[in-house]
Amino acid sequence: MRVNEEERETRFDALFREHYADIVAYSSWRAQSAADAQDVVAEVFLTAWRRLDEMPIGEAARPWLYVVARRVMAHQVRASRRRARLHQRLGSFPVAPVSDSTAEYETSALVGEALRRLKPADQEVLLLAEWEELTPTEIAQVLRRPVVTVRGRLHRARKRFRAAFEALQTAESDAEGQAGELPAAQVRPVASAGVVVSPCSSR
To answer: Cα–Cα distance between 26 and 112 in angstroms, integer?
Structure first.
């Protein structure tokens, strides 16, 4: 039986006061970061408010909240793995091995920039396939398009992404090469002084 809004608020307030500290402690221990833990706590009590009429009463409420927290954290882990797989799949091109977070960040930045260079339709089908891990049949249901159309769109989107990513890689490599070299025409040795002088400074 549904209770009125005032009773709902009173019950939720009591629930929050009684179990907030426990959920914070549990989430802080299990979550991958402090920010993730905060998100878990917020999502748990948002779910509790939405499903207050379905929640068990009394001591049974506490394990119910833990179940919700565990489910939210499992979703966070899956999302994190999807992001990692997305970068791995979309960025699986010949690159120098990376061992530090700066290089990994730069690779992720290239992936993001390559995606932004694609048309919205290409972005959507790629993210559905690589991030959400949907099959062409499932994507077809989401987009309400024939499967054969989705397969063709996905194939073309992957080719365009690869071309955009490789172009960005080439541009980045060229820029790094130019920054590390000084053209020979810009310097000349002065034998008598034993130094290198640029043409501009010799005047």
So the answer is: 34
| Ranges of each domain in the chain | 5-83, 96-175
DSSP state of 3: P
> How far apart (Å, rounded) are the C-alpha atoms in residues 132 and 31?
22
Contact 85, 139 (CB under 8 A): no
Apex CA 106: angle with CA 103 and CA 108, to 5°?
110
CATH number of 96-175: 1.10.10.10
Distance between CA atoms of 181 and 161, rounded to whole angstroms? 31
Tell me the per-residue pLDDT of 165-203, one tens digit each, with 9 for 90 and over.
888 888 877 776 666 554 554 444 433 334 333 334 444
Q: How far is CA 29 from CA 5, 20, 79, in A?
A: 34, 14, 19
Q: Assign domain 5-83 to its CATH architecture.
A: Orthogonal Bundle (1.10)
CA angle at residue 189 from 186 to 194, to 5 degrees?
140
Residues 6+ apart with CB under 8 A from 39: 31, 72, 76
Q: Alpha-carbon distance 141 to 162, whole Å?
A: 26
Element of type H or E holding 189: strand 188-190
pLDDT digit string, tens, across residues 28-62: 877 878 888 898 999 999 999 999 988 888 888 88
C-alpha to C-alpha distance for 6 and 34, rounded to whole angstroms: 33
